[in-house]
Every structure is written in C-alpha cells, then in structure tokens.
Give the backbone structure.
Amino acid sequence: MNLAGLTNVLLALACAALLPRCAHGQTLLQSPWPIAGQNLHQTRVSPYEGPQTVDYYWSFLAKGQQSSEPVVSSDGTLYFGDQLGFVYSLSASGSLNWNVSLSNQTTSTKTHQVMNSPALGSDGSVFVACEDGYLYRLSPAGTLIWKKNMTGGMITSPVISDKADVIYVNTISTLRAIYTGSGEVYWSLGYTSAYAPAIDSSGMLYLTIGMYLYFVSAKGTLLSTLQVTTSSNLVTSPLLGPDGAVYVAEYQWVTGVRNGAVRWSTQVAGGSIMANLVLGPDGNVYAATVGEAIYCISPDGDVQWIFQTGNANDKFMAPMMDAWGNLYVGSQSGLVYGIRTAGGSPDMFWQFATGSLSVNSPVLLRSGVLVVSGVNHVVYAFRPQNCSAGQYVSPEGASFCSECAVGYYSAESNALSC
C-alpha cells in the first residue's frame, strides 16, 4: 500500500473511532460568530475590536420580529430568523442576499417561528431550529438541503461540534445529536435543557437542567451530574473557562464549579439574571441583570464592580465582549450600550437609542462592525470610526460618521442624530 492509501485508511479509522459518518457532514465553521455565544465554550467574546463611537452604518427592515442574535460567516454574511418563519441572509453592508419562508418548506401546521440563532457548518450550511419541530439545513444560497422532524418544538439554538459532523439540538423532551450530513439521529437522551450546551476540547457536553449541571460524553453517555443550587433552577448556558472552570447562574446567584464541585456562589442583588454570562479575557465573569445592572465577578467569586445605567427600564440581554474588553449590551428599553471594563472600573463610552421596545444581543464582524437586532423588525449596524463627523456616505445608502457619545435613530430618515 502506498503512502496515500495508508493515509486514507488511517483517516477512515480515525473517523470511525469518533463517529460513523464524519466524512459526510460538516463541523463548526471558523468565522467571527458561527453560533449563538460565538464559540463552543459559550464565552460570548469576539476576537475583534468593536466600534468606539456611535457610527451608524446601515439598517435593515425584516418582515417579523427577531428574538435572538444573528450568526456571521467568514465573509461577513449575516444569517438570522424571525417570528414569521423567515430566514435571512444579509451582506456585510446590509443588503439582502435572500430570505426563505420555512412555512413553504413543510406541510406542518405548527408555528414556524424562528426564536433562536442559526448555526453555521464548515461549508457555510445554515442550520435552523424552528418552532414547528423541524431542523432545517439550508445552503449558503438559501436552498433547502434537508429538513428533519425532531418531534417537538426547538427550545435552544443548535450547536455544532468542531471535531465531528454532529449538531446538538434541544427539543421540549429530548437532547439529540444529529448528523449534519444526512440529518439522521446519532443519539438521543430523554431529558433536555432550556439552554444551549457548552462543549469542551474533548467533545464533552455541559448542560444546565433544573438545579443540576449535566456532563454528557460526545457519544451520548451521561457521565455525571452535579447539583449546583437548592433554591431555584439554573437560567444560563454553562460557561467554560480555559482552566476547566465552569460558570453558571440561577436568578440571583453566579456559581463557579471546579473539578466537579461547587467552589463559590456570589449573590447578584437588585435584579434577576435572565441572560447568558460573559467570560472575559481577564478571567472575570460578567453577569447582566433585569435590574439595570452588570456585575463583574472575579474567577474566585469576588465582585469587582457593578455598573448601572440609572435607567430603571434597562433589563439587559446577554452582553458580548470585544478583543479589548469592551462590553456591548442591548436592553429591553431599546438602548444599546458600549462599556469599557479595562482599568478596574466600568466606563460607558457610548449608547444608542434604537426606538425599539427591546433589542437582542449584539455580534461583531471581522471588520469591527457591530450588529444588533430589535423587536421592531430592524437590524442595526455600527462601524468603527474612520472619518470625520458628517463627511462619509457609503455606497450602500445613508450612513455617516459621528463623534457623538449618544445617538438616536430615525426610521423615517434612516439616519442618526446626536
């Protein structure tokens, strides 16, 4: 046997040892934001720098409300769904590539709402978990590749493995591992989580279910469970640190787990946690509450600082952090904030009023463009400062630079004012 033949045999054996069909499907796309949470550890940290000023770039009006963050491909293409059952593809400059109605792809009479973020496969395939109980795989051009009935509404964003051709989905009653190539079920467990799993470098899944943290192997074996709380259910996806630590939250407590045991729990006063945590490059955990506060908590559970906007209507969604440690967060008041965390104390350096009743979690493109969607059907984009105020008009439409720290959006004029 020649060297090429031996290599193919070894690759085939490696695939067979991991999963039976690893040569036929897709692993996780390496891109600026391929899944909800940005990465399999669910840290919500981008490797790119976000905008430092309110520089309104473009907006896009969707048919329905969006309930989750978009995902971003390698070339900056954005994908998201809405509550009318449409899936969208937008260019990095905000132009519509395509939209697809999922109600036209199936005879199901159930709701076709897309309440969660899609996931992107390594070939650019777009995987969408829909409330009609189907998991859809679309091509980068929006063509249906397959759809599979999961026999239950999807309750979390799907997560794709970075090592094997498997996508994990939570339905109302089961956690399933699905082959990305065929859509067939690899394994299924008779319990489920209301939050997307985190996955470590070995492929092990971490899930929050009720008051417990579950540890599940890549092959679907329940390895162990850990009771984290005795008072209320956990309300976030697990957050994995580089040192093996796991961070989770119930409504008013953030908890650190190490070596299979609870090491600390820190109370968050003045408002409940209702959104996923952030793990910064500095090792600190950031928790946003519905009581207009963001907590910075050290790896040992000590509160470093508390940021408050002073707006009682600021019920925060899940924040995201850029490469420089700047937090960007939307709120149910329709405001988007930029908050510097470097230097040991928080500093709000910009805010933007969308005019929406609520905005979802932001994401970052490789160019540094920040994108956030609102329940008013509008997707907003902000670009890094690269020109004098008022001197830039993009080829894509009305957009200009601004040096103001606070901006307000006008849907009528599609423009920003200070």
